[in-house]
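Recap for those who missed Tuesday's class. We walked through two folding examples back to back. For each one, the amino acid string is listed first and its predicted structure tokens come directly after. Nothing is annotated here on purpose, so try labeling regions yourself before you check the end of the notes.
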Amino acid sequence: MSGPVDRAALLGREAATLARFVLVGLANTAIGYGLILGWLRLGLGDYAANLAGFAMGLPISYGLHRHLTFRARHRATLNEALRYGTAFLIAYGANLAVVALGRGAGFERSALVQGLAICTYAGVLFVLTRITVFRAQPARSLRES
């Protein structure tokens, strides 16, 4: 039977995945944001501090999202890791665009701009990883579960 019941189940699964993404992301972001602010405080510029925080968080992010957020059951592959890396680079580019816009508006070394940049990164990363890296599996019937 397809229809509203299947759509509701799919939306429920996606909402749960998004909630896990947010929780895993909050933990990862807290560490990365703390590092970024620390490097800013130590005198690194916006871009260097931002890059250092994200570079250290990338392998942690991949592992946590793979296992906890998207609950991948298959063996990790190089292709999957490369797709995640590509999604990361695109999301990181969006992040840097926000930093550049903030700096252009006169907000250099701004915690607010860095926070907005991280939120932009997270939104783009979720969409790209869900679509290109950890694709949603077709819903199973109750008999298959």
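Example two. Treat it independently of the first, because the proteins are unrelated.
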Amino acid sequence: MKQVMYLGMSLLFVLTTMSCGSSKKVVQEKVKGTEEIILPLSGKEYQSNKEFYRAKTSGKSPDIATAKKIALNNAKAEIAGLISSKIKAVTQNYTNQRSVADAQDFENKFENLTTEVVSQQLVDVSIVGEKLLKTGTSYEYWIAIEVSKQAVLNGIDKSISNNKKLQIDYDKKKFEEIYNKEMEKLENDK
């Protein structure tokens, strides 16, 4: 009886060991057939955080200058979208937390003002990274740009100070507080 139990335990051990070994081979085969591709400018220093809005994109062309222009325009469009969506969220939170006379009118005017500010800020973007790749006769230009959160906030504040209607319902301190909370979400969402 002891021999049968010993034989049964040995057989169970062998089967368990063999099945673990075969599953490892399957996992190894999947890893061998998979290749990780690391994009240029993909480090943390090229991602938006609570201090900067950042965008990275590429442009392809047979001409280096054209590839760079395409990449820069794509990056500016991406960063403009990011800023606009953050400002829209801030504006909605701001109007919800304050008793603004005509909230919808305020939001619309504020959105128009923000579009102007973003356009002005995109003129002075900082390039924080560049890579040039060549494939055959084509160039692929990667670029990373940034805009300071504070520069955007200062631009909004300056524009509001020139708009009497918006000034009535604008509390700079409250708006900046909500804006900073939204910027912190950029860092926490990663």
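Answers for example two:
The domain at 44-188 is CATH 3.10.129 (Thiol Ester Dehydrase; Chain A).
The two ends are 61 Å apart (CA to CA).
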